[in-house]
Amino acid sequence: MLLFIDESGHNESGTPCEVLAGVAIAEDTLWNLVKAVRAAERDYFGDYLRNLLTEETKARKLLKTKRFKTAAKPCDLSGQDSVLLANSLLNKGKISHEQGLASSGETYFEIVAYSRQVLAFVHEVLDIAAGFNVQVFASVMDPRCPRPAPGRLRKDYVYLFERYFYFLESLSSRERGLVVFDELDKAQSHILVQQMAQYFLGTRTGRYRSSRIIPEPFFVHSDLTTGVFLADLAAYILGWGWRLNSMTQPSRTELKPYASKLHDMQYHGYKPKIDGTGDWQLHGIWYIHDLRPQNDREEEE
User: Fold this and answer.
1) How far apart are CA 200 and CA 158, in angstroms?
2) What is the reported pTM?
3) pLDDT digits (tens, 9 = 90+) for 195-210
């Protein structure tokens, strides 16, 4: 089982929530899922996006507020017209980028068609993921919440790995979990590897969970990896569109239909209580008020 992880709203980006999101995909379905997403790219844009875009496909660009406003502009277009116009816009953009032109000369119809195709494409991608039984995990938190001491693995990672572990426990006893991150710079990757090692090898709970989760992560280029693209979509959408009643952060109403699909894909399971009196119910998406481990908070108190 592969857990692709990405984050959104970090590094003072100005978004109302930080999100650490993971999508779990079985190895034996991964390639078919990738092919389905690639086929959707051709259906909506007339070609693979890697052949048309001059930069990485990121949720914050696909689903920006302006995209929805543009898609809502008056314009009568058929489905096939929209594909051709969206393809034309992307090809014009690629040529202007290669030639260093200030403008690509896109038309009103092309701009509206492309925005509509993007929004429909993201819905299709989420539907494809649901069809392949992709499990969604995410830690949602306020950017101002307290942080752990240097060297300690943040609670959003601990909670993510906890849910992933119990998901793996519900599968075959031979199933093991691999963790795949969007590539970070070398220094950040080194810190994260050290923090994961300290957790999985240096704590009793971590050692127990390493029986299912391989403690050494993989780092990949997100622009080449469909799994990380799905995690990026999940992180961005949940950061703006998923809210509990107790949360006061602003949200974007137009993203709630996408967030609803992710909500339906989240993992649900159980964790045995320490005293043996029953189980705690676990949900794949949760809100965190404090990123410090329990002992860090106790020291401050």
Assistant:
1) 10
2) 0.90
3) 899 899 989 999 999 9
